[in-house]
Amino acid sequence: MTDDKSESLRAAALFYHEHPKPGKLEVRATKPLANGRDLSRAYSPGVAEACLEIKANPADAARYTARGNLVAVVSNGSAVLGLGNIGALASKPVMEGKAVLFKKFANIDCFDIEVDESDPEKLADIVCALEPSFGAINLEDIKAPDCFIVERLCRERMNIPVFHDDQHGTAIVVGAAATNALKIAGKEFSEIKVVSTGGGAAGIACLNMLLKLGVKRENVYLCDLEGLVYEGREAQMTPQKACYAQGTTAATLDDVIEGADLFLGLSGPGVLKPAMVKKMAAKPIIFALANPTPEILPEEVRKVAPDAVIATGRSDFPNQVNNVLCFPFIFRGALDVGATEINDAMQLACIDGIAAMARATTSAEAAAIYRGEQLTFGPDYLIPKPFDPRLMGVVASAVAKAAMESGVATRPLRDLEAYKAKLNQSVFRSALIMRPVFEAAATTTRRIVFSEGEDERVLRAAQAMLEETTDKPILIGRPEVIEARVERAGLDIRPTRDFELVNPENDPRYRDYWGTYHEVMQRRGVTPDLARAIMRTNTTAIGAVMVYRQEADSLICGTFGQYLWHLNYIRQLLGTSDLHPVGALSLMILEDGPLFVADTHVHAQPTPEQIAETVIGTARHVRRFGVEPKIALCSGSQFGNLDSESGQRMREALIILDDRGVDFAYEGEMHIDSALDPELRHRIFPNSRLEGAANALVFSNTDAAGAARNILKMKAGGLEVGPILMGMGNRAHIVTPSITARGLLNMSALAGTPVRLYG
After folding, report:
1. Could you tell me whether strands 285-288 and 309-312 are parallel, antiparallel, or unpaired per DSSP bridges?
2. Which residues are known to be catalytic?
């Protein structure tokens, strides 16, 4: 790394830690404290009731306090990253960072606790005294052999999980990577020779784990700065190293590397030389995990062993062995069942879950984050990426199951599948609100045609449809392009077998399709030649023709291009006297619940009748999500205080709705803050017929609706489901170019719901 680049990185890292406020953590209350009533419950006298319940039954601490979801990250700063013994205070940024990872990846609350104590027994005393405060302890960056002593004493004396991540987290991820590397190399744990460098906490723990996975003790050779660990050696020895003594004579790494199947490096830069790699067995597995510079660089390995499987500890090379794949999720599972420890069964379950995920199809979310990387199981993809959202559900549920089966769970789960679904809902924010839609879609099988079938997001959505729904995808696109992109993305789906393919360049139905389009459009200026050209080039028109001809039940389009352009062809082919576009509805999933916004795209300046139709359509679709609609008609005017043009249209729409006697709550015209704040609304208009906060906002023009939708997305972290095209009987939906693969899956579920189920 150049000096300029290094200095730039240093400055950026320091700025990140200092601004906008120092550090990476803060404490937030989970309950309101807005008035005297709240205060009397949160503190005296009400807090005494919770105290007495816990005194009577200590397990109730998990009910009435944060303890059941609270982990302490404890360090004395004696072995921090590659920085060494920098002391407790200087280690604080690392421990804060670890706490942030717990929160980000597994929604576990953390306090970082830096202890200025170098005596391992005294440090263990301090940690044990913390047991009433925490549901689990994560020991971090404590030098060997002290870390072994601290962990042993704490595990013996504490009745909550104690986990030294530098040891066991590393060992678990190494175990998962080794499991898959051996599958690729066609080898078995029981047959391989392992040579390891580094006799510290992580190195010893990794070797212990490999033995649990089936490696034979006699096939393990451990080396450190003094060379091979052998019986009778005195220099730089510990009891942990002595367990791996091999033979009775001194030897070097170069002496013992001959015929090795797996090199495990947790030592320092440049330890493994290319000449040593040449001595290893065919298809060698090389885990060079020293940071920031590995024991050998991958390009050096490739020169002498092109068939090698390589992993490092760095993110700029494939197969990063990163503890974040493990520790948030093993703690998540352990906390959720009230485990008293993290035992071997739970660690092995964690390995199995991580390894299996890498062999499965990559999630669309991970593919979007790691765009451009090859995420297909193979030599360069042994373990999943840290931001793969499936880790939570897969790994934590496997750990919870193992805890229950091994008898260390004090709060066993009654329904493991429901628990896994709950975990997924916490990661996939749309999962909970979409559940009624997916359940309704499962009652039938519908054919969903995607007009932009070559788009990778569409391909991933099609894969997910086959895995999670009963619907059948139809993709419009060139076969060679789709096949290449399916292969590149590592997807399992294949044309004909898994989905129907419509090739706009050469399809036997071409004559029928252009003939149908011409028949519909011949009195609207479309000639046979133009119909032929459109059916060769316009995939939205092709998809609409398929729905018109009843060869598909619903069309999804819009992953590129302008909304109204797509809408034009849908109107042409699918609009009838009964079916016409009423409006576009977006569901915004926010931190405090769902909020629906309409009309975001269809009518730029809707008439009062169109506004009323939009309100009615919004109510119908809100109910599809199991939510009872409370609709606010939003305008710059508030309950008649301005005689603006938008206010007039909203008031006329209100009259139309009143005359129709609809069966849902609505009110208007009003400002957005009045819609969302019932106390403010009551002060301004005490006789409002709307109770509580509105959950759907209907605007007087698309500019206002679209602006609200985009602000909620960009500044409030809103996750969009939609836009849902209302009024077309579920025959077509137009998405926007920003949609994700999961968003397309959600839309396919909406499109896959029979009209009869939602009116």
Report:
1. parallel
2. 98
